Amino acid sequence: MNRREFVAAAASVGVLGGGAAIATDRVNVGEQPGAAESTQVEIETLDAPGSTAGSITIPDGRVTLLSVFATWCRICAESMPALGQVYDEYGADVRFLSVSNEAIGGTVTREDVADWWSRNDGRWSVGVDTELDLTAEFDVSTVPTTLVLDADNEVAWRSTGEKTVEELQSGIDGALGER
């Protein structure tokens, strides 16, 4: 193999590897923290463990961990233990809200979301984004997506895929100014 073929082969491996990393959610591309629009979104909350039927407005001037999930998402279910551990640690100081952006009323009902929540040990507020307002406001294109909003309603941290307790803690600590 000559030098030109070697360089071409190495570049191809790099492109394929980078694409695989992005496809498997090992790399976050284009997900830099930044200012959220001042638009407030009202989310319908469900009667489920740790949650009451009603609504929550996001953002509201408090540090908030926002997790967007779907009941069909295996990684979303696998993310719940880490989210629960972080909720147990920060729940008094940080608002937690998990939101399903599935089409409610079709094949998924509010009861399905509440049942999934209960089976996966959810114990903080859970809601549904029936009009996809929150999904659009924060440009959520994949699940799970986790955002931390700081007290100024800016996105202080954003990531997709399954996160460790340490990654979630780091995102929250940054929003709380404890870096």
From TrEMBL:
<dbReference type="InterPro" id="IPR013766">
    <property type="entry name" value="Thioredoxin_domain"/>
</dbReference>
<feature type="domain" description="Thioredoxin">
    <location>
        <begin position="15"/>
        <end position="177"/>
    </location>
</feature>
<protein>
    <submittedName>
        <fullName>Thiol-disulfide isomerase or thioredoxin</fullName>
    </submittedName>
</protein>
<dbReference type="GO" id="GO:0016491">
    <property type="term" value="F:oxidoreductase activity"/>
</dbReference>
<dbReference type="InterPro" id="IPR050553">
    <property type="entry name" value="Thioredoxin_ResA/DsbE_sf"/>
</dbReference>
<dbReference type="InterPro" id="IPR013740">
    <property type="entry name" value="Redoxin"/>
</dbReference>
<dbReference type="GO" id="GO:0016853">
    <property type="term" value="F:isomerase activity"/>
</dbReference>
<keyword id="KW-0413">Isomerase</keyword>
<dbReference type="InterPro" id="IPR036249">
    <property type="entry name" value="Thioredoxin-like_sf"/>
</dbReference>
<dbReference type="Pfam" id="PF08534">
    <property type="entry name" value="Redoxin"/>
</dbReference>
